[in-house]
């Protein structure tokens, strides 16, 4: 699909199997973050569009929930097949719309396809139970069912993968779904997904996409009485607002939020391997990943050697055009993010950090930047960076390294490097994070393994059996095979 084709095609809402013009008054722009070119414009959804989408999803989910497992599986298998057939198109859309480098786009495509493939097995994994009873003649059945309608609010950084992470399992398990994609990436976080499922033969009414500004329609999307679960991936600040609003309406959430992830490099680590992993975990997709490394905490005995190895590797990184297959660092999603990060770097230098590399930009591309000797109290350490700025910190021993890693309100992912794997495991257990990887960097995601954070990094788990638990409910239905007698009520011979 060419850029012109995109302008003509994916600018409408997808409601009840039809591509329709949004009903909102606001016209929105989809902008290429690298070139600044307007990819397309579209008319925003409004509250009435959301009402129509949710009502259609509620109706469509009833019949879909009764569909045979083999039919649900077939739809997911077709989506996976179509993704392979349309891979070049999908990769180009990720590059154009979200500023993904080709390296990152390939990784995102693979992860998204694995989610779909894993989800195809879910219709056969909805297990119930039969439990004993202390009441004579009673049979206790615990049945597992789809929850009904799931509202998915998608992010812009991994738009295809992180939306499909909720959409594919929810549909495979018999739910209806309404997506509100990020305004920066409405195609890859919404319309493309609808197009794939539509092409795969998903019955109309099961999946819908409404695209508009979160400030205008976000609250209505969350508070609407129809969806049973709101799945959101994004910032902690926005996630807290969604959680509060959902709680007021007794609505369940799945929240995957921000991270301030740390790699701990112990004194016995392989410096070359650790520095190589750190470069990838920091700079993939310009650091615009919730799991990306923010802080690299190095034991003092190997600090200088690690810094030298790390800087040498960062100097080899190519930054610039995301379409170039050799580029690792492409554009940030908006130029104001460059300004924000450069201000943080400037303030860190004033506070005593050493700028070893970078600190400059061209347009929306911030050159890979390395700060050494950063202190725990500095502003740049206390927040999620979401950009290509590496923060190197010194720890006097293992205990201090763990303390520094935990010195954050976040707890999404983490990393430990050591040549002693059992020691690494014990250190990982002391790091307050939903995920920790020994002798690997922090950016890991496997479709069949749980994914989720602790503290301010979110609520709930995605992936495999955890996704099944999130998007289904259990109910107790008992069968009284012989009538009971009730004390004080029933006649007794």
TrEMBL record:
PANTHER family the UniProt entry points to: BENZALDEHYDE DEHYDROGENASE YFMT (PTHR42986)
Key words of the record: Aromatic hydrocarbons catabolism, NAD, Oxidoreductase
Reactions catalysed, as given in the entry: salicylaldehyde + NAD(+) + H2O = salicylate + NADH + 2 H(+)
Family of the protein in this entry: Belongs to the aldehyde dehydrogenase family.
Active site: 256
EC number: 1.2.1.65
Alphabetical list of InterPro entries matching this protein: Ald_DH/histidinol_DH, Ald_DH_C, Ald_DH_CS_CYS, Ald_DH_CS_GLU, Ald_DH_N, Aldehyde_DH_dom
A UniProt-annotated Pfam family: Aldedh
GO molecular function: salicylaldehyde dehydrogenase (NAD+) activity
Gene3D superfamilies: Aldehyde Dehydrogenase, Chain A, domain 1, Aldehyde Dehydrogenase, Chain A, domain 2
Organism from which the protein derives: Paenibacillus amylolyticus
Residues spanning the signal sequence: none
Residue stretches making up the Aldehyde dehydrogenase domain: 19-477
Pathway membership, UniProt: Aromatic compound metabolism; naphthalene degradation
Protein name, per record: Salicylaldehyde dehydrogenase
Organism placement in taxonomy: Bacteria, Bacillati, Bacillota, Bacilli, Bacillales
The organism's place on the tree of life at top rank: Bacteria
């Amino acid at each position: 699909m060419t850029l012109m084709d995109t302008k003509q095609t994916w600018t409408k809402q997808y409601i009840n199997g039809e591509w329709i013009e949004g009903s909102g008054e606001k016209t929105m722009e989809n902008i290429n973050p690298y070139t600044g070119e307007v990819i397309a414009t579209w008319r925003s959804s409004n509250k009435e569009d959301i009402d129509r989408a949710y009502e259609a999803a509620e109706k469509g989910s009833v019949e879909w929930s009764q569909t045979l497992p083999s039919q649900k599986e077939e739809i997911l298998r077709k989506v996976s097949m179509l993704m392979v057939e349309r891979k070049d198109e999908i990769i180009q859309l990720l590059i154009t719309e979200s500023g993904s480098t080709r390296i990152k786009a390939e990784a995102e495509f693979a992860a998204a396809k694995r989610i779909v493939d894993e989800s195809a097995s879910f219709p056969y994994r909805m297990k119930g139970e039969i439990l004993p009873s202390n009441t004579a003649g009673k049979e206790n059945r615990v049945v597992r069912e789809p929850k009904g309608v799931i509202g998915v609010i998608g992010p812009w950084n991994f738009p295809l993968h992180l939306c499909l992470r909720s959409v594919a399992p929810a549909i495979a398990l018999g739910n209806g779904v309404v997506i509100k994609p990020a305004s920066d990436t409405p195609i890859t976080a919404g319309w493309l997904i609808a197009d794939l499922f539509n092409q795969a033969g998903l019955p109309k009414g099961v999946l819908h996409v409404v695209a508009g500004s979160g400030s205008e329609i976000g609250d209505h999307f969350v508070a609407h009485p129809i969806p049973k679960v709101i799945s959101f991936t994004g910032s902690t600040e926005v996630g807290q607002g969604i959680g509060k609003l959902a709680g007021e309406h007794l609505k369940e959430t799945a929240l995957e939020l921000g991270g301030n992830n740390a790699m701990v490099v112990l004194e016995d680590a392989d410096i070359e391997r650790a520095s190589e992993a750190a470069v990838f975990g920091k700079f993939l997709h310009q650091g615009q990943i919730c799991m990306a490394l923010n802080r690299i905490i190095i034991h003092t005995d190997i600090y200088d050697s690690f810094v030298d190895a790390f800087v040498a590797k960062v100097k080899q990184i190519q930054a610039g055009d995301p379409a170039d297959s050799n580029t690792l660092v492409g554009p940030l999603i908006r130029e104001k993010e460059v300004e924000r990060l450069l201000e943080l770097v400037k303030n860190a230098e004033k506070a005593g950090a050493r700028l070893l590399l970078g600190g400059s930009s061209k347009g929306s591309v911030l050159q890979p930047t390395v700060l050494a000797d950063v202190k725990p109290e500095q502003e740049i350490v206390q927040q999620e960076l979401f950009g290509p700025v590496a923060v190197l910190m010194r720890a006097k021993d293992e205990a201090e390294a763990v303390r520094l890693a935990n010195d954050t309100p976040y707890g999404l992912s983490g990393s430990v490097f050591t040549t002693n794997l059992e020691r690494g495991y014990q250190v990982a257990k002391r790091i307050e994070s939903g995920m920790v990887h020994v002798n690997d960097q922090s950016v890991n995601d496997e479709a069949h393994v749980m994914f989720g954070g602790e503290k301010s990094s979110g609520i709930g788990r995605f992936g495999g059996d955890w996704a099944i638990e999130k998007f289904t409910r259990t109910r107790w239905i008992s069968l009284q095979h012989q009538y009971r007698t009730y004390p004080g009520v029933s006649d007794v011979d």
